[in-house]
Amino acid sequence: MSTPAAGRLAHWLARLEQLDPSKIELGLERVTQVLPRLDLKQPRLTLTIAGTNGKGTCAQMLSHLLVANGLRVGRYTSPHLQHFNERVAIDDVAADDDALVAAFERIDAARGHVHLTYFEFTTLAALVIFATRQVDVQVLEVGLGGRLDAVNAVEPDGCLLTNIALDHQRWLGDTLELIGAEKAAVFRRETPAIVATPAPPESVLATARGVGANLLVRDKHFRANVSGDGASWRWQGVARAIDGLPWMDAAQTANAAGVLTLLEAVGQLSGLDDATCRAAAVFRPAGRIERIASSPAIVLDVCHNEDSVMRLAQWLEHSAVLPQSRTIVFGAMRDKAIAEMLAPLAPYATRWVAVAAPGGRAMPSDALAQQISAMSGAAALAAGSPWQGMQHARRVTPEAGEIIVAGSFPVVGAIRSRL
Q1: Is the pLDDT of residue 20 over 60?
Q2: What is the mean pLDDT of residues 64-92?
Q3: Integer CA distances (angstroms), 306 to 47, 160, 215, 345, 380, in order
Q4: Distance of CA 308 to CAs 95, 260, 274, 314, 363, Å?
Q5: Section 183-191 average pLDDT
Q6: Where are the alpha helices (DSSP H) in 83-219?
Q7: Rounded CA gap, 103 and 126, in Å?
Q8: Would you give the DSSP letter of residue 346?
Q9: Residue environment code for 56-94, b if the CB has 16+ CB neighbours within 10 A, otherwise e
Q10: Contact 355, 385 (CB under 8 A)
Q11: pLDDT (0 to 100) of residue 145
């Protein structure tokens, strides 16, 4: 009797995780050796998304709009929130277990003696599935950096750079200029390179000039202007404008403006009406300031670095919930700047629960609780698991209050899967 697909995929994922998921091996040598052996027919359009934050949001927004334009779209993002299959999607539907297993088996047969990392196996699996399903467009999210990320082995027809902030300094450098150069390395000659932030590091501009990319920078080549009443905004592209886009926050506006500009630059905006673009502009993936109706209310937010924590803090600043009615359940990886991530959230809650997701990269909950107490002056409970932390938060938070679940993907995903 054959093993069910779900069991075979679990076996494969366990095997990949034994490649040491805590170890990051950047470099294109391995992928560029294996990719030609797969003999994949490339889709007519490849769009690559790099940046520090907002990549997943932009990838899904792009996918939604391209599907609305009548195209078959493959979308590759990472990491996943709840299920591995989320990483690879066709027309916004996650790949099934059989497709992933078949892709892994094909890669394993083709690689020979070439060692591939977890992320490289996954990236190649996405490309295999997209070629097998004959997608028209593939939207690829860079995992870490850009220059040496496995996604950069694929030649793009257009690129979007969301923003540049401090993160993964161990691998990318400890300044915005160094990080910017790494991420902008996805740009290509005579190819649209959209920069969604109005003041990128000089290294981003220099990289674009160096390769001869068709650079489009926000506030210089395209704009996102808020209306007088602050309730909407106007996107002004190179040849088209869209009014009445719903206002959400600065980060979401930047994401949507970058996506619309990339679509215009690669000739995929003309088939979309204004109403469709307005609807897509407010899209957020699961786990990004996601409010769940409950008593008390629950807000889930994957904020895994200082920049994304600041965005959550800005959202909390405009909330009507008082700090004494709010509990924050927080967990992060041990290689993050924990104190810098905690400080912006300190004014917005009087109760904290420290949690740790399974795996060797997480900051232990007891050590995290100590840092929270030292930073905020408030007592912090160290929970045995993310879900135990959530249960405690429900017990101590007023029914009219709010629970914020924030931090790493594994923490938010573990809690979301049980809500």
Answers
A1: no
A2: 96
A3: 27, 21, 27, 11, 20
A4: 28, 22, 29, 10, 18
A5: 96
A6: 97-111, 118-132, 169-172, 176-184, 202-211
A7: 8
A8: G
A9: bbbbbbbbbbbbbbebbbbbbbbbbbbebbbbbbbeeeb
A10: yes
A11: 82
H/E segment holding residue 76: strand 73-76
Specify the DSSP element, H or E, that contains 351. strand 351-354
Q: Which residues pair with 389 in a beta bridge?
A: none
pLDDT bracket for residue 173 (50, 70, 90): confident
CB 300 within 8 A of CB 330: no
| DSSP code string of 231-287 | SEEEEE-SS-EEEEEEP--HHHHHHHHHHHHHHHHTT-STTS-HHHHHHHHT---TT
Q: Check residue 21 and give its pLDDT.
A: 47
pLDDT of residue 37: 97
The residue type at 305: N
**Predicted structure pTM score:** 0.92
Between the alpha carbon of residue 185 and those of residues 57, 148, 151, 153, 191, the distances in Å are 21, 9, 11, 11, 13
Q: How many residues does the chain have?
A: 419
Two tokens at 317?
Answer: 């600043």
Radius of gyration of the chain measured on its C-alpha atoms: 21
d(CA 327, CA 401): 8
The one-letter amino acid code at 49 reads I
What would the pLDDT profile of 369-418 be if each residue is shown by its tens digit?
999 998 888 889 999 999 999 999 999 999 999 999 999 999 999 999 99
- Could you tell me what percentage of the chain is helix, strand and coil, using 3-state DSSP and rounding each to the nearest 5? 45, 20, 40
Report whether pLDDT(351) > 90: yes
User: Which two structure tokens, joined as six digits, stand for 292?
Assistant: 């769940």
Over the stretch 231-262, which tens digit does the pLDDT of each residue have? Answer: 899 999 999 999 999 988 888 999 999 999 99
Neighbouring CB atoms inside 10 A of 278's CB total 17
- Contact between 388 and 331 under an 8 Å Cβ cutoff? The reply is no
- What are 49's strand-pairing partners? 141, 160
